[in-house]
Amino acid sequence: MRQYSPDLTPPWKKPKPVPEVHADPGLVVEEPGTGFCGAVIGCEAGTVTLEDRFGKHRVFPLEPRGFLLEGRVVTLVRPAAGPVRSGRTASGSVAVPGARARVARAGRIYVEGRHDAELVERVWGDDLRIEGVVVEYLEGVDDLPAVVEEFAPGPDARLGVLVDHLVPGTKESRIAAAVTSDHALVLGHPYIDVWEAVKPSSVGIPAWPRVPRGQDWKTGVCRALGWPENTGAAWQHILSRVRSYKDLEPELLGRVEELIDFVTAPE
């Protein structure tokens, strides 16, 4: 018969137990050996794939005590039953599994430009489909009076509008005041362009550059950051860094949520 020796390791030298955490998609952890920090994007038998804020992927083994979660050592384990979906939408709302898109409402939300529309879709798209709210975009705020007149907002067809750089004393503020009514709500954020509503840390920069007056703002940003002066490609890079409402500034979050509430309020 095989003889087993007792474990004579002093208690203070034994490693303390650490919690096991499911490697669910979106969980942000750090691999201490390399310092690589990223969100879980995949978990196969024995390995986990992380993506950092720059979009770089790394694969690591699922070893005991192999990761840090909020500074604490944990053991990542594969989710018990296949892929696990988040219980929240990108906007932070409770997800409704299997929910079908509602037939579009008569009410609408207009935003100022294609980039604004793409950002709203990225974060609030699931919510908007469930509520049946369609988002369209203006070519410029100067078009807003004609759009409102043609839309003819009323109790059963409310109109919400999101405007860039809506601060007192500007052309944008005067136009907004002229078209606002009981059934048309115009809100805005203070940023020159919706690019600035994305947190710099999410994009991997210390801050959004200050661009001198008279220069095209987007081109000036690309130049200051050393990016190719291709604003379309720059925007796709910025948008790819947005995964949820946590990547956006509160000045934008609150305004979009308020507009959604406005156009979906009971008649």
Automatic annotation (TrEMBL):
One Pfam family linked to the record: DUF3097_C
InterPro entries found in the cross-reference section: DUF3097_C (IPR021447), DUF3097_N (IPR053883)
Segments forming domain DUF3097: 20-79, 108-264
Protein name per UniProt: DUF3097 domain-containing protein
Protein source organism: Streptomyces kaempferi
Classification of source organism: Bacteria, Bacillati, Actinomycetota, Actinomycetes, Kitasatosporales
